[in-house]
Write a structure and sequence with these properties.
The complex is a heterodimer of chains A (about 650) and B (about 500).
Chain A: H1 7-26, H2 72-76, E1 88-90, H3 93-102, H4 109-120, H5 143-154, E2 159-162, H6 170-183, E3 190-194, H7 199-210, E4 215-216, E5 228-232, H8 233-237, H9 239-247, E6 252-255, H10 267-274, E7 279-283, H11 292-302, H12 310-317, H13 329-336, E8 340-341, H14 345-348, E9 354-361, H15 365-381, H16 391-406, H17 408-419, H18 426-441, H19 446-457, E10 462-466, H20 469-481, E11 486-489, H21 495-507, E12 511-515, E13 529-532, H22 539-547, E14 558-565, H23 569-580, H24 590-596, H25 604-612, H26 617-649
Parallel strand pairs in A: 2-7, 2-8, 3-5, 3-6, 4-5, 6-7, 9-14, 10-12, 10-13, 11-12, 13-14
Chain B: H1 4-17, E1 23-26, E2 29-33, E3 47-51, H2 54-59, E4 64-65, H3 71-80, E5 86-91, H4 98-105, E6 112-135, E7 139-149, E8 155-156, H5 177-231, H6 235-257, E9 260-284, E10 287-296, E11 305-306, E12 313-314, E13 318-319, E14 325-326, E15 331-333, E16 340-342, H7 343-349, E17 353-354, E18 361-362, E19 368-369, E20 376-377, E21 383-384, E22 391-392, E23 397-399, E24 406-408, E25 412-413, E26 418-419, H8 420-423, E27 426-428, H9 433-441, H10 443-446, E28 451-455, E29 460-464, E30 469-475, E31 481-488
Parallel strand pairs in B: 3-4, 5-9
Antiparallel strand pairs in B: 1-2, 2-3, 6-7, 6-9, 7-8, 9-10, 11-12, 13-14, 15-16, 17-18, 19-20, 21-22, 23-24, 25-26, 27-28, 28-29, 29-30, 30-31
The chains are: A alpha/beta (about 650), B alpha+beta (about 500).
Bound molecules: zinc ion (6 copies).
Chain lengths: ~650, ~500
């Protein structure tokens, strides 16, 4: 059932979950059937309906079947009202059990014991332990995340700002808290609000990792019908949806990227403030972007009064003329500790250092000639193939240029297809045909030669990343010819084959040859050497590759070797990523923060191509320089934010920090 | 919390009972083929693969984890609670003689036990299994089983064996509707008594949190509204919005911390329980007491006796001098004989008081009160003065410097610190019996003719006058010389 759950089963499960949650939370509902012969008051299920399903962990008392139900006045004798414990109710269903006994129902003792033992399972005693941990799948959780969840549940009573630094898994922490509340029958209606771009990812993670099947709310969804809903905050704040959400009462509201709620006069803030909820989690890595009032607004949204009224806050914490530095930093931290948890990479993820080796190579003469010819062709045609029908050609050119950075073997195949493609003009196809002939004729590869030398020298297991399957196959043949045991890993493998490949690498193979980082969550940290045979033009992809080995569990220094050829676009990539933003030294997650500070509408890849295809060398260098400066500025901006947050929050807000 | 072993045992038994026993397919992974009848409970599957180990469940393909909160366990629980509402069990008196049962449960500190008469009757009981849930913004559960005598409504501690798979009886109707209702009420009352303290603590905690939250919210909105009205012309509409927000926040706080407790009756077992009665007689030093005890065949546990002084129960009662039964804490025993007084006896018989010197308790037979201090002393620490006959404690004992015997301080008067006896020595003729005895015994003194003598209730003091030195002798009632010393003549 797990993973491969067919849809009907999933649906049944959701139904069961929800029915159970309703029953567990509401007890016996008032019966809306005027003719209910069993009680006239109690909700008794139709005989042909399935019996009430249990919640996870909080199974409702299974109602005795209502066939031949006793008359209401007969049940009245079995009612009991608490006399010593105010607020305690004795379930009206108890009368149905008693009526069965009176009516002579006698069951098998084995069934009686099973029933008794079933009800003994999972008795809860406050948040002393997390019941949900064994139920979380396919994701490692760490001690600080467990500490965080326990602190949120125990001390913060389910209302918290989760402000871990990027890359520490705030989503996992939120998921643990959520699952815990669901498993304990404390949460039934849950609303997750995220930026539109993260809606699908949240849904996916909640389903696969936490077994919580959320429904994405789009334009025409009925909010009241679903208990577990995810929506983009933009969708939710539209009048028609907002009004409906405000009518409902949620048990939990989670807001991701909660810094979007930094202004309490905005619709976003007002929307979240107006939703009725018991528990609330606000997730953000950057609780303060411009000024401390943002922090006030966030905390007030969560727990008004924690930082006093705005006037009080201003008097106590704001300095005239400096909206970012608090007047009483110690006092502010103390108050924030009641509502905010901020775990820091430097304290929870102590990773060994990275050592980066740029391996610059010089292309062989035929490779060089071909690279220049292809580049000339690309530079010439790229600006011409603009939007619309020819944008396909533009993409082909990008791919071609990228493949040239990997190997002529990878490019040859694309050239062959391009020369035969009707999308290209006749004269282009002639040029492409010629380029293809030349590419196909090249059998030696300088980079590959260097890789063989490297592998021979490196004593340890090594992961080699390339973006292209054709490159991968050539390298595999070559390395195997050298006598190395090679595991390959690429998108064409079945899950079983992938598993086997990783296992073989772990258990003996020298080399792991992989296209793209693939296999999120796959543990490769037993290896500490990564060779980038070619460099993706998306820095986050490079980071993902490194992240395969540079993660918790890695005990040795991580060695990163970047292979790149002089006078190619890869030199540009290295220039920008290594020299300007030192990306190879950034901790996983930080790169995103740096790039997020770029005022650039285009993707990294597009910017790179735009620069590369400038024909005039001087202007090209100039453009590269300009973009480099931009990156540098972004990095500096990030650094200054980092040191600002260091001053504002320090280590005092970590989950395990002392009181 | 359920232990992993309990969980696994339950699940194994469940599948066995449903004719789909678990077989271990690979380490930690079990498989059950589901018979047709069981499939609807498991989404129509014809077989399932499960593991109790999250690690094994994650690494082996198509395996469902069975753990608290897991989907599969929920299905099992759902199915298991569809039947088994009520059974009837019979628990008969064992062949063990009642005297043995009593001897195992009542072990008096100081009395013999005899069981004089016993009888057995079968009493229908109802065993109620309750699940209690207390919720605020957290949740605490309890499981409570209450066994009730259906005739008297009296609660009885249920034996663990009452929860086992005992052979069932088809018979029923032993307790009628009214009886069931009455027993249920008694059980509910007993249950309330058990959980009242915890429920109160739980509710008070939630209430304290609610109060703090309401205060914080109220003060925030009070201040904010004032600030808005003070600072802006447009303040009025903003203030109205704040008021709305306040209402919502307060409602949230109420909702979040509202206490709700619910008691669910899970299932019931009618237990036809043999209940034995026995007259138990305790005997000690002439005191004798008979009590009637009752115990059931399931626990074979004679309830502890009640201390007649304080009401506490005790398995090691003491039968005191006056024939009362008391707990060990409520009696005192003499350290010199086997006499025991409870507090009731003390009123009648006097205290068993600790000796002012050694603290050892002594009963009225063994305690003496010092004539001078009025403090009690044990026989080891009381001193009877041989001159005046007073009994005094060690602090009022004095030694005469002359005869070196101990008397009470009254009889050894300062400043000379000689005792009354030594001060009243008088000339004795040589044929005085005491003098004559000494002269016969001691050839050295046989020639001495000048004697003085005095006696008290115990000692005789004699002085034989020599030329320069006199001899002082002290004899006890048997005539033994306990002291002989040279003293300067007068
Ligand atoms: Zn007592
Ligand atoms: Zn005595
Ligand atoms: Zn007594
Ligand atoms: Zn003494
Ligand atoms: Zn005296
Ligand atoms: Zn004397």
């Amino acid at each position: 059932m797990r993973g491969e759950t067919p849809d009907p089963a999933l649906a049944a499960r959701v139904e069961a979950l929800l029915a159970g949650l309703i029953a567990a939370n509401l007890g016996a509902a008032e019966c809306d059937r005027g003719d209910c012969e069993a009680c006239g008051r109690l909700a008794i299920l139709e005989p042909d309906e399935p019996p009430p399903a249990p919640t996870p962990e909080a199974p409702p008392p299974p109602a005795p079947p209502a066939d031949a139900g006793p008359a209401p006045e007969a049940l009245a004798a079995f009612a009991y009202e608490a006399t010593r414990v105010p607020g305690l109710t004795f379930s009206p269903r108890n009368a149905l059990v008693l009526a069965k006994i009176r009516d002579g129902v006698v069951d098998d003792p084995a069934d009686w014991v099973l029933h008794y033992k079933a009800r003994l399972l999972g008795l809860q005693s406050g948040f002393d332990v997390l019941l949900s941990l064994p139920l979380i799948r396919g994701v490692r959780h760490y001690a600080y995340q467990v500490d965080t969840a326990l602190r949120v549940l125990r001390t913060m009573r389910g209302r918290a700002i989760l402000a871990d630094e990027v890359g520490l898994g705030k989503t996992i922490e939120a998921g643990i808290v959520l699952k815990e509340l669901v498993v304990r029958g404390l949460a039934r209606k849950i609303l997750i609000l995220t930026p539109a771009s993260l809606v699908a990812q949240w849904r996916e993670e909640m389903e696969t990792k936490f077994g919580l099947p959320f429904e994405i709310m789009d334009e025409f969804e009925d909010w009241a019908r679903h208990d577990l809903v995810i929506s983009s905050i933009d969708t939710a704040k539209r009048d028609v949806h907002r009004e409906e959400i405000q009518r409902l009462a949620y048990d939990v509201v989670i807001v991701d990227e909660a810094h979007k709620l930094k202004n309490r006069t905005t619709k976003n803030w007002k929307l979240v403030a107006s939703v009725r909820k018991k528990y609330m989690l606000l997730l953000t890595a950057t609780p303060v972007q411009n000024d401390l009032e943002e922090l006030f607004n966030l905390v007030t949204l969560l727990r008004p009064g924690t930082l006093s009224s705005f006037g009080g806050f201003r008097r106590r914490f704001l300095r005239r003329g400096d909206p970012r530095t608090p007047a009483n930093p110690g006092e502010l931290k103390r108050l924030l500790r009641e509502v905010m948890i901020r775990n820091r990479r430097s304290t929870v993820l102590v990773l060994p250092p990275r050592r980066v080796f740029p391996a610059e190579i010089v292309l062989s003469r035929p490779e060089r000639k071909l690279y220049e010819a292809v580049t000339d062709f690309v530079r010439d045609r790229y600006p011409a193939y603009g939007r619309g029908s020819t944008s396909v050609n533009r993409l082909a050119l990008i791919v071609l240029q990228k493949e040239m950075g990997s190997s002529t073997f990878a490019a040859a195949e694309t050239l062959r297809r391009m020369k035969e493609s009707p999308n290209f003009a006749y004269e282009d196809r002639l040029v492409l045909g010629d380029l293809y002939e030349r590419a196909a004729a090249i059998t030696e590869n300088e980079k590959a030669r260097r890789l063989r030398e490297l592998i021979a020298k490196i004593p340890d297991k090594t992961i080699v990343f390339t973006q292209y399957l054709r490159t991968l196959h050539v390298l595999r043949t070559m390395l195997e010819a050298d006598g190395h045991a090679v595991s390959v890993f690429h998108g064409g493998l079945t899950p079983g084959e992938k598993e086997a490949s990783v296992r073989a690498f772990r258990e003996g193979n020298r080399v792991f040859l992989s296209t793209e980082a693939g296999g999120e969550g796959r543990n490769l940290q037993f290896c500490n050497t990564v060779v980038n045979f070619d460099l993706p033009w998306n820095p986050l992809k490079i980071e993902q590759r490194i992240g395969r080995v540079h993660r918790i569990g890695q005990t040795r220094d991580v060695v990163i070797v970047n292979l790149w050829a002089r006078d190619t676009i890869e030199e540009y990539v290295m220039e920008l990523l290594d020299k300007k933003i030192n990306m190879f030294q950034l901790v996983i997650g930080e790169l995103d923060l740096v790039l997020g500070r770029l005022d650039e509408a285009k993707t990294f890849e597009e910017v790179l191509m735009d620069i590369w295809t400038v024909k005039d060398l001087a202007r090209r260098r100039e453009e590269l320089q300009r973009f480099g400066e931009e990156l540098l500025a972004a990095r500096q901006k990030y650094e200054s934010t980092k040191s600002y947050e260091e001053g504002l929050f320090g280590n005092d807000l970590a989950a395990e920090a002392g009181p | 919390m359920t232990s992993p072993a309990d969980l696994e045992a339950f699940v194994r038994r469940y599948f066995e009972r449903r004719s789909a026993p678990l077989r271990e397919e690979e380490p930690g992974v079990f498989r059950a083929s589901l018979p047709e009848s069981l499939r609807p409970a498991f989404d129509g599957a014809d077989a399932i693969r499960i593991s109790f180990d999250p690690g094994a469940a994650a690494s082996a393909p198509r395996v469902d984890l069975v753990a608290v909160g897991s989907y599969l366990l929920d299905r099992i629980v759902e199915d298991a609670t569809r039947a088994g509402w009520h059974t009837v069990a019979r628990v008969e008196a064992p062949p063990t003689p009642p005297a043995d049962v009593v001897a195992g449960s009542i072990r008096p500190k100081n009395a013999t036990v005899a069981v004089d008469a016993s009888s057995t009757e079968t009493v229908p009981h109802l065993l109620f299994n309750f699940r209690v849930r207390m919720m605020s913004d957290e949740r605490v559960d309890r499981f409570e089983s209450v066994l009730v005598d259906s005739r008297t409504g009296k609660e009885r501690r249920p034996a663990a064996s009452l929860f086992e798979e005992r052979p069932g009886l088809p018979e029923d109707g032993t307790v009628d509707g009214a009886g069931i209702a009455a027993a249920y009420r008694s059980a509910c009352q007993a249950l309330e008594g058990r959980i009242a303290a915890d429920a109160t603590a739980f509710r008070e905690q939630a209430e304290a949190l609610r109060k703090a939250e309401v205060e914080r919210i109220t003060s925030y909105f009070d201040r904010s509204v004032n600030e808005v009205l003070d600072s802006r012309a447009s303040g009025a509409s903003e203030a109205r919005a704040l008021e709305l927000d306040r209402e919502r926040r307060l409602a949230e706080a109420e909702e979040k911390y509202r206490f709700a407790g619910e008691v669910e009756l899970c299932n019931v077992r009618t237990v036809l329980l043999d209940v034995m009665h026995a007259d138990v007689t305790l005997e000690h030093r002439g005191a004798r007491r008979t009590v009637r005890v009752e115990f059931d065949a399931a626990t074979l546990d004679v309830p502890p006796l009640r201390c007649e002084v304080c009401g506490a129960s005790t398995r090691e009662p003491v039968l005191c001098f006056g024939g009362h039964l008391a707990g060990p804490e409520c009696v005192s025993a003499c350290g010199f004989c086997d006499r025991v007084h409870c507090r009731t006896c003390i009123a009648v018989e006097g205290a068993i008081a600790p000796c002012a010197t050694c603290r050892r308790p002594a009963c009225p037979d063994h305690a003496e009160v010092c004539a001078l201090s009025r403090k009690p002393y044990c026989p080891d620490h009381i001193h009877a003065c041989a001159i005046c006959g007073r009994t005094v404690g060690p602090e009022y004992v004095a030694r005469c410097v002359s005869c070196e015997q101990a008397y009470c301080v009254v009889c050894v008067a300062p400043p000379a610190e000689r005792c009354q006896t030594c001060r009243s020595l008088a000339v004795a003729p040589p044929d005085d019996p005491a003098v004559a005895a000494i002269r016969r015994r001691d050839p050295g003194l046989a020639k001495v003719t000048k004697w003085r003598r005095a006696s008290n209730q115990r000692f005789t003091v004699l002085i034989a006058k020599g030329l320069v030195w006199n001899q002082l002798l002290v004899t006890d009632p048997s005539g033994t010389v306990v002291l002989q010393k040279k003293v300067l003549g007068t």
